[in-house]
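[#protein-structures] MJ: dropping Threonine/homoserine efflux transporter RhtA here for a structure pass
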Amino acid sequence: MLRLAALTVLTMLAFAANSLLNREALADGQTGPAAFAMIRVVSGALCLWVLVRLRSGPVRPALRPLGVLSLALYVLGFSFAYVTLQAGVGALILFGGVQVTMFAGAVAGGERVAWTRWAGAAVAFAGLVWLMWPGAQATPPVAGAALMVAAALGWGVYSLLGRGVPDPLAATASNFVFAAPLAVLVFAAVPDGATMQGALLAVLSGAVTSGLGYALWYTILPRLSATLAAVAQLSVPVIATAGGVALLGEELSARFVIATLLVLGGIGLSLVRPRQRTIGSNGS
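AK: finished. structure tokens for Threonine/homoserine efflux transporter RhtA:
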């Protein structure tokens, strides 16, 4: 259990790093969103496929259309959303949306969900509603928020699919290989370019925090319930926010702080196990 917790924390750090790397590259104009997404997917595909070849020799990529499309939707929506969103805000919208998607998938799949997780999900969702509620200066840009919601749908579906994969590394590599042409097509339509530093940030995001991070996520997903996996990912916005403030000079708003506290409260509540009623031998 301790090893699983450590691997889960490491994966969440990789997810938060993706937000920071993407935002850093876009904020200073070092790369455009289409270029970042393309380099990220291509470098991730190359890194993962080399690992697969080293492990088991020549392997033919297996096409899983829904996995490829959900991965592409996530990566492209993620990159374009960070043109206008701060790292922490984007991560909060992303993983709040992921939680909703994975809870819906869990319920549709017949998974029994404890009342504490329902309550935790409701509190966390209330935090997202507070963040997104219109009429305040701190409300995120509509276009960026909508793109990140689309990315959340893609990642939520991708995570649900990953729970039943027998070979996580090969599956992740195949999904990246087949998603790469889609990212290239988007870049061909929107050739926004990248500097050398921007390209290096995208390669780091693709090969390390995405490729290796997602392979690790696929590995531990079968050992987590869909609802617990969804809740665990809600820690990412807090990590991304801390990194955004410390490394990118981003500011904290009162609205975002309240939303984050609600999300964290939802995580804590979801992790509480409800007490089981016991029946004595005399039936009382």
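MJ: nice. The chain has one domain: 2-270.
AK: one more thing. The longest helix spans residues 2-27.
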